[in-house]
Design goal:
Blueprint lengths: L1 E10 L5 E10 L4 E5 L6 H9 L4 E10 L2 E2 L5 H6 L2 E4 L6 E5 H15 L7 H14 L10 E2 L5 H15 L3 E5 L7 H13 L6 E5 L5 H4 L4 E6 L2 E6 L1 H10 L2 H7 L1
Helix pairs in contact: 3-5, 5-6
The chain binds adenosine-5'-diphosphate (ADP) and magnesium ion (2 copies).
The site of adenosine-5'-diphosphate has 11 residues, from helix 1.
Length: 251
């Protein structure tokens, strides 16, 4: 489903190279965990997948279902089923969460040539998904993410993901700032979306999340490239020994 080949990318403004020859393949149905020390380029990779303009790809390619996405803007990528849950979800003052969900869902439906959702259908869908994530419906009247706790923001991200039913989900440190109960709820939401035709990339600094979202593969990022890949045991090994050993080995 996703094939990243020898990707090199830099910050457009300064020219600093952050991604330095990254290779990664993720199959449909696979849950791939990306781990790595702070500053290794995990968030940068997720932004590049989503198509953020601040980064420039200088070499390599990103194939999604065999097609390069490098020439596509973020909206096109989203319409093709790529979804990024942010490490730091943006606050959008003045836009109620429910209104935001309606706009996002209808934009996706328009892109697919489907009719807009009728309000009762929208409410039913949102109520079901919010219920599963143990989110209070009253929260949906509040401006998106404004004054939400860390856990509430992450739930709001998973709610958007659940409703948009993407094919490739990229979750950037969805665990950061979550207490254990919120972590379980978020992990349940993610696990509910696991399916043979959907791939997920779960980015995390810590092994803890991977006790709840058990990955099929684990990839360690360091200085902008994947330096080691393995199965879920690699995450346990990292938890015990830290990143230093593996990073040193690769260097
Ligand atoms: P991670 O998510 O693995 O902690 P990031 O992708 O956030 O790492 O950052 C990788 C490196 O790139 C860091 O050294 C960070 O400071 C740098 N970086 C990322 N984006 C920018 C930017 N827009 N301007 C300057 N430096 C950046
Ligand atoms: Mg970081
Ligand atoms: Mg990050």
């Amino acid at each position: 489903m996703l094939e990243i080949r020898n990707l090199h990318a830099r910050i457009a403004e300064t020219g600093t190279e952050i991604i330095r020859g990254l290779n990664l393949t993720v199959k449909g149905g696979e849950v791939a965990a990306i781990m790595g020390p702070n500053g290794s380029g995990k968030s940068t990779l997720s932004y590049i997948l989503a198509g953020r303009e601040d980064y420039e790809v200088t070499e390599g390619d990103i194939l999604y279902n065999g097609e390069s996405i490098l020439g596509m803007d973020p909206a096109e990528r989203a319409a093709k089923g790529i979804f990024l849950a942010f490490q730091y979800p943006l606050e959008i003052p003045g836009v109620a969460t429910m209104e935001f969900l309606k706009v996002a869902l209808n934009a996706q439906r328009r892109a697919r040539g489907e009719p807009e959702l009728k309000i009762p259908d929208l409410l039913r869908k949102v109520r079901e998904a919010a219920g599963r994530l143990k989110m209070d419906m009253a929260m949906l009247k509040r401006p998106l993410n404004v004054g939400f706790s860390g856990g509430e923001k992450k739930r709001a991200e998973i709610l958007q993901m659940t409703l948009l039913e993407p094919k490739l989900c990229v979750l950037d440190e969805t665990d950061s700032g979550l207490d254990i109960d919120a972590l379980k709820v978020v992990a349940d939401g993610v696990n509910a979306l696991r399916s043979p035709d959907r791939a997920m990339i779960v980015i995390t600094h810590y092994q803890r999340l991977l006790e709840y979202i058990v990955p099929d593969s684990v990839h360690v990022l360091s200085r902008g490239r994947v330096i080691k890949s393995g199965d879920k045991d690699l995450a346990l090994q990292l938890e015990q020994n830290g990143y230093a050993g593996i990073v040193g080995e690769a260097a």
